[in-house]
Amino acid sequence: MLAVLLGAALHAAWNVIVKSSSDRTSEIALVTASAAVLAGLTLPFLPLPAAASWLYLAGSVAIHVVYFSLVALAYRHGDLSYAYPLMRGSAPLFTALVAWLIVGEHLALGGWLGIALLSTGVLTLGTDSWRSGRFRWSATLFGLANAAVIVAYTLVDGLGVRASGNALSYVQWMFFLNGFPLLTYTLIARRQAFMTVARTRWKNASVGGLCAIGSYGVALWAMAHTPIALVAALRETSVLFGTVFAALWLKERFGPARYVAALLVTLGAVAMKVL
Length: 275
What we know:
By secondary structure, the protein is mainly α. It has one domain. It contains 13 helices and no strands. It has helices at residues 2-19, 24-42, 54-77, 80-89, 91-103, 109-124, 127-132, 137-164, 167-189, 191-223, 228-235, 238-249, 257-274. Helix 3 packs across helix 9 (167-189). It starts with a helix and ends with a helix.
């Protein structure tokens, strides 16, 4: 649990880095390229993932291209404090249902209660946008679409890391391969804008890439030993970290819903642990 909570904080950190850029599409490409470089440096020292996991790796790369593209679009059209909870908060319950129906993972009552509380809590963080008049249909649609994508890559990678025989190898190969599609597209479609971002924000992107590897690496390691649905739900506490980071660094303002959400997320984490 402590490892996944640390990963949640790292996940929120790289999302804040992307949101803080004026060109989110180029920033996403730069972050994924940085993660690919960092992951590539470790590959000579790691064993290859088992052959059974390579199909999952290929599927994961394809799904993550869609995911990162939708992240950039959601942040282009809405605040992080709205789009981030929407993307992350609606995914855990869907993940649990699909994992139950397809993978055959059965959760105890405490697991389902924890997932429900966590999901309700992180979605509550977005209600301030309704009250303040900052609601945007475009951000909502992109956020909900990405929730479905999150379900897809969570299940694919959860199964892939179990088949790989080495969680770290699977994670590093995934990030290494993920860097190429978005970078290639961005260099073709918006080369000048990307080069401008690369010159001015390469340090930020390097930190973002490191945070992305740490965040998802911890999650996949946990999925190799723990039910996928529980890890996916606990990981969504990143929304709380994202809320704090958005207030401190992006100067986004929040209402009392934040405190209600914090209580719900905390109760959800406790329910998953003790029930």
